[in-house]
Amino acid sequence: MVSTGSTTGLPLKVVVWSTGTVGRHAIAGIDRHPDLELVGVWVSNPDKVGRDVGILADLGRELGIEATSDRDALLALQPDCIVHTAMADDRVFECIEDLFGFVEAGVNVVSSGPVLLQWPDKILPDEMLQRLADAGARTGASLHVNGIDPGFANDVLPLSLTSLSQRIDEVRVMEIADYSTYYQPVVMQEIYGFGKSLDHRPMLWEPGILTMAWGSVVRQLAAGLGITLDEPLTEEVDRRAAEVDTKTASVDIEAGTMGAVRFQVIGKVDGVPRVVLEHVTRTAEDQVPEWAQPPEGGGCYRVVITGEPFMQCDFVHHGEHGDHNVSGMIVTAQRLVNAVPAVVASPGGLVTALDLPLVTGKGLVAHA
């Protein structure tokens, strides 16, 4: 089923898997991309079945494609690639089964999750990784999982910056963000525990879970730098209570319940930190002012390379008609959408950021 549409001059046929906070932007991105053709969209909500996907994606116009929950019907379209953006945080292994199933059916996939598939070494069992490798060898289809974090902000961006280094002592990749406008109630309440007592311990804060979620970032950076990390990786978590009642898009947070968190996943070599993933997550801009701050309101992704020379890069984004959380969904979707031609052209199996050529926004410059 794998095609080489880009080499024939024909657009690559693409299916989008979901119309949620990332999927709707993927639909818009594919609609604008000259080398891609949207041919189908999958939805989980029965109320969305049969509706035009242009309306579901808030494009303000119809695209002539009806959303469906029929997996087999979409595979029968023989798409060159599936842009998979369905929620994975609360159904990791079910989602992995879906993604592996697409590759086994001969369809390339780019996906926003589960994020551990960005670099699954030492996270997934060898037999699972072998299953994917065997499927890719048999069908020629590839799987690439990426986005913004885990993704571009902590793989391509920092590794590109290290090309300027003479000596590297530590690479630190950070997300510093105010999540007050981030609408994802399951993530905010059940996974992070915002608005709940500090005595409540969601699974995310149990030992080993942060490594499962973000260890892929640290280990992929280490692979790109050619170093071997001590195992297991080190985890540090600092959760803080909100000082005042705080309203967010996902949850109302009472004073005294969890309002902010800073966590790190640390990769060491001979006991010395060399690669560090750090998140500073607030639900109001003025919380815990002593923690790292973005250069402007909302948030940023930051890369700090300690060595010779010292380098710091702050990546700030915000939407044309929304804030940084809206644009966070856009950049996640577009990293996937713009990678489709390169992933389709890749050899079968798992494709990481280290495997891809330079991915650009070719064809997306606006016309007057």
From TrEMBL:
Ranges for domain 2,4-diaminopentanoate dehydrogenase C-terminal: 154-359
GO molecular function: 4-hydroxy-tetrahydrodipicolinate reductase
UniProt keyword annotation of Oxidoreductase present: yes
InterPro entries given in the database record: DAP_DH_C, NAD(P)-bd_dom_sf
Domain of life: Bacteria
EC number(s) from the headed UniProt entry: 1.17.1.8
The keyword Disulfide bond is assigned to this record: no
Matches recorded under Pfam families: DAP_DH_C (PF19328)
UniProt name for this protein: 4-hydroxy-tetrahydrodipicolinate reductase
Source organism of the structure: Nocardioides ginsengisegetis
